[in-house]
Specification:
Structural class: alpha+beta
Low-confidence stretches: 33-37
Strand order of the largest sheet: 1-2-3-4
Radius of gyration: 30 Å
Largest sheet: 4 strands, antiparallel
Distance between the termini: 114 Å
Number of strands: 8
Shape: elongated
Mean pLDDT: 77
């Protein structure tokens, strides 16, 4: 009789333990599950936390060593954002599987690298053993603005196949830095020579047109592409395409035909900005 009573108690305890385990897992999933937060919501949350902290600080003193650690982390984060140009604007995380030592989480990230936006979605498989924790990225999907930055498509496909985010961010920083440099260069010459420099595709385009304001018909197109190969190596490629009326071409055929070669020589000797400015001045003198 007593054995039966004990068995009933043991069964109830086992059921309670299973229920506690189930509720614990649901709670952890709820803690990990998050929605996308805008910059304004993040700032509001920070300000709310600051107000709460200021109220609590009146009752207890904030540890000076912890405050110093937070300040160091903020400084390091600010340095990394300035150094790489990468900033994250949104993040969500959801646990899709958890059993024993195996955990699978689904992550979504959105951010900018300089002026280049990107989105990531992937699953992170974590396996714990007695010595360490191993993590593997699977189902990686990278979304970028293919219209304005078509040169990254092969590189993105290669990264998705390998499932390695470190070379992605490293190469993305270099590529986006060149895109930003090109944009700033176009903006500089458009502001300095508004009557000569034309931007048919805007600042995000990969070429500018130099056109003499006088009716001479001389027009030069400077194409500035930024190539990135499957291994993430970034290379700026510039070329000159002249457009000259037939009557002018007959008079200066040799000069016009040699213009692209001369432009590439100027790039090697003077650099990109000086080579473009020399061309602008030549176009502006032509009548």
């Amino acid at each position: 009789m007593e054995d039966n009573i004990y068995q009933v108690y043991e069964d109830e305890i086992r059921l309670l333990e299973e229920e506690i385990q189930m509720l614990t897992e649901k709670y952890e999933d709820g803690q990990q599950e998050s929605t996308f937060y805008s910059d304004e919501e993040i700032l509001m949350s920070i300000k709310s936390s600051q107000r709460e902290f200021q109220g609590e600080s009146k009752e207890r003193e904030f540890p000076s060593d912890l405050k110093a650690q937070l300040e160091t982390l903020e400084t390091d984060l600010s340095f990394l954002m300035k150094f790489t140009g990468i900033s994250f604007t949104k993040h969500s995380k959801k646990t899709v599987e958890k059993s024993g030592s195996r955990t699978i989480q689904k992550h979504r990230l959105a951010g900018n690298c300089h002026s280049l936006p990107f989105q990531l979605e992937f699953q992170l498989l974590q396996i714990k053993n007695k010595e360490n924790v191993s993590a593997v990225i699977t189902n990686l999907n990278i979304v970028m603005e293919s219209g304005e930055y078509s040169g990254v498509s092969k590189f993105v496909s290669s990264i998705e196949e390998r499932g390695n985010l470190l070379p992605f961010f490293k190469s993305l920083s270099s590529y986006a830095e060149w895109c930003e440099h090109r944009r700033c260069t176009f903006l500089h010459f458009k502001a300095k020579y508004p009557d000569i420099v034309q931007l048919p595709e805007g600042l995000s385009g990969d070429y500018i047109v130099l056109r003499n304001p006088k009716p001479s018909g001389l027009e030069l197109m400077i194409v500035w592409k930024i190539d990135i190969d499957e291994d993430g190596r970034t290379t700026p490629v510039l070329d000159l395409l002249p457009k000259v009326p037939e009557q002018v071409l007959e008079q200066t055929r040799a000069t016009i035909e040699n213009a692209p070669t001369c432009f590439r020589s100027m790039l090697l000797l003077f650099g990109i900005e000086a080579a473009i400015e020399n061309l602008i001045k030549v176009v502006g003198l032509k009548e």
